[in-house]
Amino acid sequence: MAGVSLRLSDVMMVLAYASDLATGHSRDFALKSCVMAMRIAKLAKLDPAVSRSVYHLAMLRYVGCNADTDLLAGLFGDEIALRRELVGLDMGNRAELGKVFTRAFQRLYFDLDPAAQEKAIAEGLGQALGVARPVLTAHCEVARRIGERLGLPQEIARNLGQIYERWDGKGLPQGLSGEAVLPAVRVVTLAQDAIALSDELGPAEMARIVASRGGGPYEAAFAELVAAHAAELVAGIGASVERETILDLEPTPHAVLDEAGAEEAFLAIADMIDMRMPFTLGHSRAVADLAAGAGRAAGLAEAELRALRWAGMIHDIGELIVPVATWMRVGPLSARERDAAQLHPYYGERALASFGAAGNAMAALVLRHHERIDGSGYHRKVTGPDLSPAARILAAAEAFQTAREERPHRHGMSPEAAAARLRAEARDGHLCPQAVEAVLTAAGQPSRRAAAKPLAGLTAREIEVLRLVAAGLTAKEMARRLDLSPKTVDHHIQSVYGKIGVASRAAAALYAVENGLLRAGEPP
Questions:
Q1: What is the pTM of this model?
Q2: Is 94 helix (H, G, I), strand (E, B) or coil?
Q3: Taking CA atoms, which of 144, 329, 455, 503 is between 20 and 30 Å from 396?
Q4: SS3 for 126?
């Protein structure tokens, strides 16, 4: 990547793949939706500026889907299974929505006796909308923020803030209706439902359902257009979509990222991955910093260092295929869950196919970040000869950082204890000794950054509250930690939100990570 010039579309395809994994959509769902949406825009003779918004929104609509996912999983269990069942559903139909929620609770409470299960389901249904509403609000807010970080125009970022709005006003979070819902949102919502319905039921049934929803979730004119041209719109959209197809669809001028823009884009991907759970916030940034520092100490060339740093940022993208409910469990994983979790490097490598040849170096590192030189790693169980110096460094950096982080089933280690563990792994022949020492050299700096200077006018107490919000503590837990009343804590939270311009915990957490106020592995 000498001179670094990346198409923004390539980055968006990686994010599209990531959101497909996290939401349980079929392979290339977002890319197929992009093709469909651009065809609708052409048939409708939309303004070029609107078509450009359609192109970006189709790939990025669910980029905020990881916000507050732990809350969703805490109520419903397997959030990916839930999201899969919501695909193509008329979300304004409370009866159908209730059926989906009930099935989710039946999966979650399968081991209860009938009476206890019925009671648990009733309680869950009573809480469902109360949890779903703030989660969807957070999705919109985080999606908009990520769009801004990618350098997208303000109009496209505005679209990302409306992703759950509907023509009939029954959407969230603002309940906008009619022309107040931006044109690109109207087109992409329809296109994505049309793809889901066509994949499941065929073009003819998709056309019938879309026509019946005109004036409801969809603008009637767009619904009629899609119903009348259903066969034409789905023609040639198979199980997967080629990268070149998406690149060719991008309206001109094509957006290109220089090295600084690409760095920010990879950081945005890292934050999108990590924000699924409070205890992983900042994990990928920390791994990338460690790996880059170790690579520099080991004398890697600049191109290798860049690939290593960016691979560190996105190494866990394949983990999005594993439900958060699995990672949140205190007990051990089942054999099937462990097998699925150990395949995440494979899915990570596949995500980087969007970059074509330019992504090969990163993909090779992501694929190998859990491998060990003695063949005891996963998922390919390769040995030393297949592991480059950069791959060995990334494996050691990931192992050190993960050991320091809290998890539901264990406490995080001190830096000294984590270093001792890595050296033991090296002595036992699992990790490369040179890579371990390079990583530990990079980690030898103070574990905390210098005290953060006030940001956005935040006081020292407000920064402290923001760190606790980002770490996932409730207002009551913060009150106990800070020896304050819950009312005072809530006042601080509202003041923080107002000063940094957010309205959800997820967006506040993202702000904290972006500004160095929270680092994975450090206590809040």
A1: 0.89
A2: helix
A3: 329
A4: helix
